[in-house]
Specification:
about 25% helix, seven-stranded antiparallel beta sheet, 3 helices, Structural Genomics Hypothetical 15.5 Kd Protein In mrcA-pckA Intergenic Region, Chain A
Length: about 180
C-alpha cells in the first residue's frame, strides 16, 4: 500500500508539501520524511507528536515521537495500522510548547504498490520556521540576577519585620529545668 499525503500550514498560507510513503513504514519514518522535506539542515531537538483525527480535526489517536506509559511511540506503529481511508486527517505538531503544527491529509492510497523509501513529490513555498530554545542574552542574565537579588532583599525585610512583630519570646531563653510534668 502506498500512501500520499498533502501537508499544509495555517501559519504560511502558500506552503504545500506532497509526500509519498509506504504503508508498512512507521509514523517515525513519516516524521523523518516531513523533517527532511521541510528542514533538511536543521538539528531538531523538540519531539514531534502526530494526531490522527476525525473529519472535524478532533484527535482520535495520539502518537508521540517518544512513547510513554499511555501511548506507543511513532517507531512502534505502522502507518497502515491507523490510516486506511483517503481523506483521513492528521495534525503534525512540531512545536508542542508553542502550539505550532501543520495539517495533513491522506490524499491518495494505492493498493498493491510499494516504495522502498518515502519521498517528497512536491514542495511549494517555505515551511514554517523552526524556533529553537535560544541562549539567554547578557541582558536576560543581568535581569535574572537583579530579580533574584531584589527577592532576596525582600525576604530579608520580611524576616526582620516578623522578628519586630513577635512578642519577644525566644526559644533559646527557655529553661526547661523548672518545669515538671507529672502523669496523674
Amino acid at each position: 500500500m502506498l500512501l500520499s499525503f498533502t501537508v499544509a500550514s495555517k501559519e504560511i498560507e502558500d506552503f504545500v508539501l506532497k509526500l509519498q510513503i509506504d504503508g508498512d513504514d512507521t509514523f517515525a519514518d513519516l516524521n523523518r520524511l516531513i523533517r527532511k522535506s521541510c528542514w533538511p539542515d536543521a538539528e531538531i531537538t523538540r519531539p514531534a507528536i502526530i494526531y490522527v483525527c476525525d473529519s472535524h480535526w478532533h484527535p482520535e489517536h495520539i502518537i508521540p515521537e517518544e512513547g510513554d506509559y499511555e501511548h506507543d511511540s511513532m517507531a512502534d506503529i505502522c502507518l497502515s495500522d491507523l490510516l486506511e481511508d483517503e481523506g483521513q486527517r492528521l495534525i503534525y505538531d512540531f512545536d508542542h510548547e508553542a502550539n505550532r503544527h501543520m495539517i495533513m491529509e491522506v490524499s491518495k492510497i494505492l493498493y498493491g504498490q510499494n516504495v522502498s523509501e518515502g519521498r517528497c513529490l512536491q514542495r511549494i513555498g517555505e515551511p514554517p520556521a523552526l524556533v529553537e530554545d535560544e541562549e539567554p542574552s547578557a541582558l536576560d542574565s543581568l535581569l535574572s540576577q537583579l530579580n533574584a537579588s531584589a527577592l532576596g532583599a525582600l525576604n530579608e525585610e520580611e524576616d526582620d519585620e516578623r522578628e519586630e512583630e513577635s512578642d519577644g519570646f525566644n526559644d533559646d531563653e527557655l529553661d526547661l529545668e523548672g518545669f515538671e510534668i507529672s502523669e496523674e
